[in-house]
Amino acid sequence: MEDVKVQIRSFLHKGEIDFYRAPGRINLIGEHTDYNGGLVLPGAIDRYMYFGFAMNNSGRITFHAMDLKESVSIPLGGYNKVEEEWANYLIGNLNVLSSKGYVFTGFECAFTSDIPVGAGMSSSSALECAFLVGVNDVFNLHLSNWDIVHNSHQSNHKFMGVRGGILDQFASIFSSPDELLMLNCDSHEFKKIDADFGDYSLLLINTNVKHNHVSSGYNDRVAECQSALNSIRQQNPDVSTLSDIWNIEDLDNIDFESTTVKNRAVFIANENRRVIELALALELGDYQRCGELLYQGHEGLSMRYEVSCPELDFLVQLLKDAPHVLGSRMMGGGFGGCTINLIHKNKVDAVRNHALIMYEQKFDIKPDFYQVRLSGGAGSF
Ligand code: GLA
């Protein structure tokens, strides 16, 4: 940690520096349910976005993306989009805060990270959360944890144009070590689940692909789910989110816009059930069942929700056929990124070598591997 501080210091002018960090996340199950008011089961990982803040009287705010070797400087109050996408995540949050009446003075901040970008571990939410935790502290804004989650969520919708849910920010802020959180994204109630996987451990495999329709594909799914909800509400106005539907038979008499839209609704109902079942299986130490649910989740994401891609499907099938693997599925928004895999502790290396050879042979791309530990949420360091 001291090393990170030394590096950050070298990017900032001399003087007092405050340090903050926020973690990336995994999501064991409950994909695309967050923006449908459903259930998710995420946890923070031991990879972080690290920030240093230094106040000054420059009348400007300057951001240094240390790993990219880029800097952006804006005047106070000039919270508009810039060319550098990474800076927009920060400016967007200032924009939302200032629309609520918060006022800032000049400062400079620098950040670095060991969360792989585009891997589905939510480096962008970690960026926003670490920044907000820092801004909250250095300016004494008295924002609650939920205020931070909502601010980032609003910035994504209004400023970045991504209609995401609260999964990523929630995990980055609220997590505790060795635990997963089962969150109801509608009521915001959550429960901590002890995440000891017994003789098994979690391995993430990064396909190292990111198909270029990531954000349009994501927003399309949000729109399809909205269409499904509108059709359901025509027959049953009491339904307020797609996640109010628990029995897929209830979807049979609805006049959906298309079969595709119905498929999206069926997936969400099944995925919410899987979250409950998996949390229960974890509590019972039934890792076999956990694994089965991961495979089922992947099948739904691939066939009914259609957010997988050939690279992800290949890895999941490869691990399904390999010994000592209990379960595997794509993780996050989809169209690339990582799979999450439950593998016997003593066999992780063997599985890793197998996947490395087979994946490279098939796609001519080297995958990356991350054995992650569940960590605590954002704060100072
Ligand atoms: C991305 C979004 C999240 C969530 C997942 C899919 O990570 O940022 O809000 O919708 O996709 O579960």
The SSE order reads HEEEEEHEHHHEEEHHHHEEHEEE
Number of domains: 2
Shape summary:
globular
Number of helices: 10
Q: Helicity, in percent? A: 40-55%
The CATH topology label of the largest domain is Ribosomal Protein S5, domain 2
Molecules bound to protein = alpha-D-galactopyranose
List the helices and strands and how they pair.
Elements: H1 2-11, E1 18-27, E2 39-40, E3 42-55, E4 60-65, E5 70-75, H2 85-99, E6 107-113, H3 123-138, H4 145-160, H5 167-174, E7 179-184, E8 190-194, E9 200-210, H6 214-235, H7 259-284, H8 287-304, H9 310-321, E10 325-330, E11 336-344, H10 348-363, E12 368-371, E13 374-375, E14 379-380
Parallel strand pairs: 4-6
Antiparallel strand pairs: 1-3, 1-14, 2-7, 3-6, 3-13, 4-5, 7-8, 9-11, 9-12, 10-11
Helix pairs in contact: 2-3, 2-4, 3-5, 4-5, 6-7, 7-8, 9-10
The structure holds alpha-D-galactopyranose.
Alpha-D-galactopyranose binds at residues 31-32, 34-35, 122, 164-165, 167-168, 332-333.
Which labels suit this protein?
381 residues; alpha+beta; Ribosomal Protein S5, domain 2; Alpha-Beta Plaits; 2 domains; 4-stranded antiparallel sheet; 42% helix; binds alpha-D-galactopyranose
Could you describe the 3D structure shown?
The structure is a single chain. By secondary structure, the protein is of the alpha+beta class. It has two domains: 2-193, Ribosomal Protein S5, domain 2 (2-Layer Sandwich); 196-372, GHMP kinase, C-terminal domain (Alpha-Beta Plaits, 2-Layer Sandwich), CATH 3.30.70.890. The chain is built from ten helices and 14 strands. The chain has helices at 2-11, 85-99, 123-138, 145-160, 167-174, 214-235, 259-284, 287-304, 310-321, 348-363, and strands at residues 18-27, 39-40, 42-55, 60-65, 70-75, 107-113, 179-184, 190-194, 200-210, 325-330, 336-344, 368-371, 374-375, 379-380. Strands 1, 3, 4, 5, 6, 13 and 14 form a seven-stranded mixed beta sheet that branches. Helix 2 packs across helix 3 (123-138) and helix 6 packs across helix 7 (259-284). The longest helix is centred in the last third of the chain and has 26 residues, at 259-284. Bound molecules: alpha-D-galactopyranose.
